[in-house]
Amino acid sequence: MVPLSYYLVLSGILFACGVTGFLIKRNIITIFMSIELMLNGVNLSFVAFAAQWHALSGQVFVFFVMVVAAAESAVGLAIIIAVYRTRGTLNVDHVDLLKL
Amino acid sequence: MLHLIVFSVFGLVCVAGAVNLLVQRHPINSALSLVVVMGSLAVEYLLLGAEFVAAVQVIVYAGAIMVLFVFVIMLLNAGEEDRTKGSRVALLFGIPGMLIGSVLVAWVLLEKSGAGNVGVGALPGPPKVIGWLLFHDFLLPFEVTSVLVLIAIMGAVVLASHPGAVQQESAQPDQREV
Question: Which member of A29, A84, A100, B105 has the lowest number of beta carbons within 10 Å of its beta carbon?
Fold first, then answer.
């Protein structure tokens, strides 16, 4: 038997790592991967709570989160390709102007 | 006891992968450590009894999304990122604030939450029940999701297509008229 709080702490650690990566990373692809890490942390807490209360809706919500993450990553990576095509860089510090 | 050991091992692998994602400078190394995080998370889901979520985690996240990431990294020929200096105020207040906050949250979760234990395979949810839920209770969100995915596909195609190609195609009918 593992306490539910262990799962919650693990998901909190993952979410904190995602936030930290989002803030300190300079490569736009790595920033995007940090967002995926945050989503994974939230998914773990969803499944842990679903196991705690024997509520299967939690798993369905994880399914929806995954679908939204897939759609988001498809559009986001397309945006990254478009940004790289117009700017020629992936460093977010160099992508700080609206006009070219 | 065995449950706790397996949970700890894969939890440590998970956290190690997440930290490695932050430390590595080349995006491809970060992507591969993210695959490690997702794989060990799938094992944690299996421990909780969520077979469906574990399978979808491996297929969709570790399979599809990460392959997309690796494709884009290789397509754009992304090199090592150059470090820039962050602000000193953020270091001065951010790190102690983050430590205090995380210790507080962990203490509340571990000592004061009153949440019970979770056994191995605690979820009584075979994929059949989840499919029933998806097509009865969550039918409207499910259909809205399909629209969302369709829009995402079209958006990705439009955004990633070369702008010159669209102009040439739209220019061709004019030439025929002339």
Answer: A100
